[in-house]
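Two records follow; treat each independently.
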Amino acid sequence: MKIGASIIKYFLLLLIALGVSGCQTLSSPARSDKPWSSASWEVQKNLSDNTWTNLRNQKIDNEQPLDLNGLIDISLRKAPSLRQSWRQARAYEAALKQAESKLYPNVDLTGKITRSKGKGSISSSDTDQIKYGPSADITYLLFDFGGREAAIRGAQDDLIGANYTFNQSIQDLLLTVEQTYYNLYSAKSALVAAQANVEDTEKTFDAAKIRFQAGLSVKLDELQANSDYDNSLYQLEEAKSDLKSSEANLALALGLPADYHIEIAPPTKEIPTNLSEADITSLINEALALRPDIAAQKAALRSKQAAIETATANMLPSISLGATGERNWYEDYENNRQRSHDYDMGASISVDWNIFDGYNNLYAKKQAEELAKLEQENLIEAELQASADVWISFFNFKTAVRKLEYSKSFLVTAKNSHDLALESYKCGLSNIIDVLDAQAKLAQARTQMITSEEDLYMALSSLAHATGSLYRKNTVSLEQNTANVNVTVY
């Protein structure tokens, strides 16, 4: 008896010691006006994390300037957003396997050993016995009015929706890469344009100084030209900052650190502009048939409808088949450790029907019905939004085509006007106001030209994304060459 009590005492002490050794002291912030100080063990956990080190050690082949196809290839391999949706889909696959496990019997094996000791009364003897042995329970659901099958169909539709969401994440990633690429290209163009504006304002400033020193103009001309020159230097610094931001955004889209240097090649292929307004209806219909987010929404609706069937089945009886088996060995210490054994086997068929649960199952069904109706409305809204996306993107593209044409013409006339105004001012045939006005229009034309070109690229990629065809082989792709970026400023 004393030996058994000692064993139990030491066992409990061992459990307490193991529990204490596995605990770390942790508390909430001590005060509301001071930051929380992390414990040393928690800091050590953060220091041992190698996520950022692994990101830093990434290497890509960028010896030559990367075209859009090369950037997309990098993003498909590196971007965490794509892997997130992929992991989500794999989690739903595991959930489907869990639902399908209901098609198989459930087998539960246990093994135990017990020591029992008791003091008998007048009519019974003392007991001191050890009992040990395995047991098995097998249960199999035979019939539940389709609830099991409905749960499997719901899990299948959840997986289908997750797979379509993964496809949509690819399209979203490609759109992000394209737009950040075009934004970076435009930022490079804007920097070149800003440098050209500095050169133009400096020429005007020099001309104003020469005329003032020769007594051919007043000091005000020189001061106005100087202020215009200083403003162009300010715009140049802003263009440099925009370029750095654009580089960071592209690196982020590719799944690379912000300071990872990436040299890009310029877009060179002609953009198709022959889309007619008669195509808009077919484009909308194509979007509703191809867009992965719409397909995912439809799968979500089917999953919610399957949940109604599952909830209905939970209100009805289920029939299960069961079997049990047990084998025991005994050692009787009161009878000189006399050994014996026995076994027990049985089979059963059971009907389980919860006829009243406080209306829990009833309202679970009502909830499933309302969620299905909600998902139906979500689908209607998504389809309407898809049609609006195509419509807006289409006419944004058509507008961008025309705006680019006008911007080209504006740039040519503004350049000619500026050159003529400057020459006229040098010859004393015009005043400084004419030169500065022409100079401002030329700077505006350069910016407008860059913006219009970027808008056209953006509009085309947005239209492909809106129609769900950004990743299809027959989609119009904007192929690039691998030459160095060489922005022409007129």
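The next record belongs to a different protein.
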Amino acid sequence: MRKLFLCLFILVFTYGCSHKLQALIDISGEKAEQASYVKAQNTKLELLFRDVKERNLKIGLTENEVIRYYGNPVLVKREDGLDVFLYRNTVEFFPKEKVYLFFDSDGKLMGSSLEQKETKPAPEVINPE
């Protein structure tokens, strides 16, 4: 009887742990997918920043073409009859660069705006003695 109880205990214990272990494995796989997605988005974002800075962004691209070339915007809003796409680094809390793309009522790119913030060094801490 004791052996039967011990076998059942081990069976239940390992069965319960296997689900937890599988959940950890799934989470680990998701983190790798997330990291891959963020890396791909950042690559496209850098391309967009470069094209805007060097004035190589082609006016007249459709919204779908822009998304295909530069990835999904962080935010899309309608402002003064225009669609506005916001692109910025998605993982930084205070990104130093943002790009706004403006589309007309036909969904064609009309222009862009680059917003850059200068980073200031932290103030020096003075230790009073």
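Discussion point: The mean pLDDT is 81. How would you locate this feature using only the token line?
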